[in-house]
Amino acid sequence: MNASIQRMFSEFKFKFARREGGFTLTELALAMLVVGILASVAVPSFLGARNSAYDDEAQASLNAVLNAATILYQNQGDFSDASTAQCGDSTTLAADIQKIEPGIDAVAASAASTNPQVVSVQAAQTWSSNGELLGCQAFYATALSRSGSCWIVRFTVEGKFLASGSTLPIYMATPLNTQNSAVATWTLLQVNGKAFAYIRARSTGADADNTNGLSAIGTACKAATQGTGSAGSTANTIKSTEFYTSWKDVQAGANGSNS
């Protein structure tokens, strides 16, 4: 009996000693496979969540500027700067916005947004369907997200066109009806109100990829560039037909890929 026990104990020690030598190649391969699968799922999810938070930050800044622009309009009846009543690239307009919303660094239309807290602003003239100049009835603002995307808002109170001669119509893109896809969406509308859009590079700044695309987006993230009312497809410039009625529709839409 003692001999049998000793033999079993010896076999156990031999197997244990072999086990202490390390993992087999098969075990290592399986472990690496599992780690790779987990990484392929976790890393994109992490980057997506981080970029979404970055974009929310830019949207919050633009919402604050929109509120300030609304107050400015209520005070004077248009979006011109308070002292000279001028539209367009005005440092005075930026200063007026910043007085109302001191938490945001508002800059003139020709200056690009460099981060979510720096918002480029511009007032623009509008025309009626009868060719009547209505004054500074349009407002644009841009903010650059740390994800590398440029977020844009447009606010028009009166008017149907952004240029004389019934050109550059003020359009709103087809609402995507993200709540119920079974319901047919509207056709392209020519309407006033608050509208939202964005432009993104093919890769995001957080991914440290596609440097040229990101640089171009950063350069174009200014109200003077995005506030032209462009109707055609131009690199890094949002079209008038690519503005939506909500941030949610913007993110679900196809725009933002024209860089």
Structure notes:
The structure is a single chain. By secondary structure, the protein is α+β, with helices and mostly antiparallel strands. The protein has one domain (38-252). It contains 6 helices and 7 strands. The chain has helices at residues 2-19, 25-76, 91-100, 211-220, 223-226, 247-252, and strands spanning 105-107, 118-127, 133-144, 150-156, 161-163, 167-169, 193-199. A 5-stranded mixed β-sheet has the order 1-2-3-4-7. A two-stranded antiparallel ribbon has the order 5-6. A hairpin with a 5-residue loop joins strand 2 and strand 3. Helix 2 crosses helix 3. The longest helix has 52 residues, at 25-76. The model is unreliable at 180-186 and 203-212 (pLDDT under 50).
Shape: elongated
H and E order: HHHEEEEEEEHHH
Please indicate the percent range of residues in DSSP E strands (runs of 2 or more).
15-25%
Report how far apart the termini are: 82 Å
Task: Return the domain count.
Answer: 1
Q: Would you tell me the overall average pLDDT?
A: 78
Can you count the beta strands?
Answer: 7
> Ranges with pLDDT <50 over ≥5 residues?
180-186, 203-212
Question: Which percent bin holds the helix content?
Answer: 25-40%
Going across the major beta sheet, what is the strand order?
1-2-3-4-7
Radius of gyration: 28 Å
* Helix count, DSSP H or I runs of 4 or more residues: 6
Structural class: alpha+beta
What kind of sheet is the major sheet? Answer: 5 strands, mixed
